[in-house]
């Protein structure tokens, strides 16, 4: 009898959960525009790269982004009331970036304890959105960074991430841990048109690489050095912040002890998310578990790949 009562309790809780989530799963589970926007806001806040990047809500699975820039001098010596000669007229560099959103799924399982508490407080929908976003945000960062179509990992093989895409400007750290020399070489390698607004640039690297850099700064016998030991303060090089990203790999290279660094304006990273986000719900009554599956599509592209510098063979740890 106790088992039967427990079974009924599970069913009651799951039925209440169904009612609480009815608006999320209406219409085949496709989130309404306001719901999709709220979900993406939570997702961006929970991620690291997305929070810095340009996020593009895509109207369809494929979308073109126009880009325009003036790569060279556009001013000429002028004369009063005289138009510039045709050869002196500036022509912008035009181009397009295609975002091709790839399909991903995330599954969240909630047990009765979580469900009952959230239902009683009338916050089940918010709990679901928050937990899904937390589960998805980490994985989005991972594929946006480490994605590679030739990968043996089916998840990472869906698209090329920023480490794979960065090919034009390469610095080989040759097994050094992160130090000011590596950052100096990266800044010097960045093409001049893109380093003019240096304050907009960011160094992105792994957690341990950022720790190594702070450790090198703390060795200075100064008040500035002391703060990196005593406080959790942001690190910079030449005014450019160093951002640690948990999903940056730390097992690269033959010895499996290396990472990479990306230098770019984070707004140069375009992450397209197709706004048709779907949520489906199923239940396992005997276990008292609600299964929520979220389906979404996204892609990542640099707006200007030549505005990116990548450092390779950066050793982490001892």
Describe the structure in your own words.
By secondary structure, this protein is an alpha+beta fold. The protein folds into two domains: 151 residues, no CATH class; 115 residues. Helix content is 35%, strand content 27%. The protein contains eleven helices and 13 strands. The strands form three sheets. Strands 5-13-9-6-8-7 form a six-stranded mixed beta sheet, with helices on one face. Strand 11 and strand 12 form a beta hairpin. The longest helix has 23 residues. The chain is globular, with a radius of gyration of 25 Å. The N terminus is likely disordered.
The helix fraction, in percent, is 25-40%
SSE class = alpha+beta
Compute the CA-based radius of gyration: 25 Å
Large-scale geometry: globular
Largest sheet: 6 strands, mixed
The count of domains is 2
Order of helices and strands: HHHHEEEEHHHEHHEHHEEEEEEE
Number of strands: 13
Query: How big a fraction of the residues is strand?
Result: 25-35%
Low-confidence stretches: 1-7
Number of helices: 11
What is the CA–CA distance across the termini?
A: 60 Å
- Mean pLDDT across the residues is 87
**Strand order, largest beta sheet:** 5-13-9-6-8-7
Tell me the layout of helices and strands.
Blueprint: H1 2-20, H2 22-25, H3 33-46, H4 49-52, E1 54-58, E2 62-69, E3 93-100, E4 102-111, H5 112-120, H6 124-146, H7 162-165, E5 170-172, H8 180-189, H9 192-195, E6 202-205, H10 207-218, H11 223-230, E7 235-237, E8 240-244, E9 258-264, E10 269-274, E11 278-284, E12 289-302, E13 309-315
Parallel strand pairs: 1-10, 5-13, 6-8
Antiparallel strand pairs: 2-3, 4-12, 6-9, 7-8, 9-13, 10-12, 11-12
């Amino acid at each position: 009898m106790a088992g039967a009562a427990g079974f009924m309790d599970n069913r009651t809780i799951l039925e209440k959960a169904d009612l609480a989530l009815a608006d999320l799963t209406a219409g085949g589970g496709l989130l309404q525009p306001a719901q999709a926007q709220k979900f993406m806001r939570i997702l961006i806040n929970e991620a690291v790269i997305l929070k810095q990047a340009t996020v593009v809500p895509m109207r369809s699975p494929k979308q073109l982004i126009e880009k325009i820039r003036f790569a060279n001098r556009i001013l000429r010596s002028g004369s009063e009331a005289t138009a510039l000669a045709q050869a002196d007229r500036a022509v912008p560099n035009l181009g397009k970036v295609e975002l091709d959103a790839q399909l991903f799924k995330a599954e969240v399982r909630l047990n009765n304890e979580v469900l009952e508490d959230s239902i009683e407080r009338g916050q089940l929908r918010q709990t679901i959105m928050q937990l899904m976003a937390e589960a998805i945000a980490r994985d989005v960062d991972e594929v946006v960074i480490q994605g590679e179509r030739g990968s043996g990992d089916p998840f990472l093989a869906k698209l090329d991430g920023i480490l794979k895409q960065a090919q034009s400007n390469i610095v080989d750290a040759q097994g050094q841990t992160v130090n000011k020399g590596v950052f100096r070489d990266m800044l010097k390698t960045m093409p001049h048109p893109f380093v003019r607004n240096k304050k907009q640039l960011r160094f992105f690297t792994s957690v341990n690489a950022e720790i190594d850099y702070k450790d090198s700064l703390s060795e200075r016998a100064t008040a500035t050095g002391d703060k990196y030991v005593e406080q959790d303060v942001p690190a910079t090089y030449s005014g450019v912040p160093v951002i640690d990203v948990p999903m940056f790999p730390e097992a690269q290279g033959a010895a499996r002890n290396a990472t990479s660094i990306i230098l770019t304006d984070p707004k140069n990273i375009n992450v397209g998310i197709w706004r048709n986000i779907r949520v489906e719900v199923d239940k396992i009554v005997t276990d008292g578990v609600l299964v929520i599956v979220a389906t979404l599509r996204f892609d990542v592209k640099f707006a200007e790949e030549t505005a990116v510098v990548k450092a390779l063979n950066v050793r982490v740890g001892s």
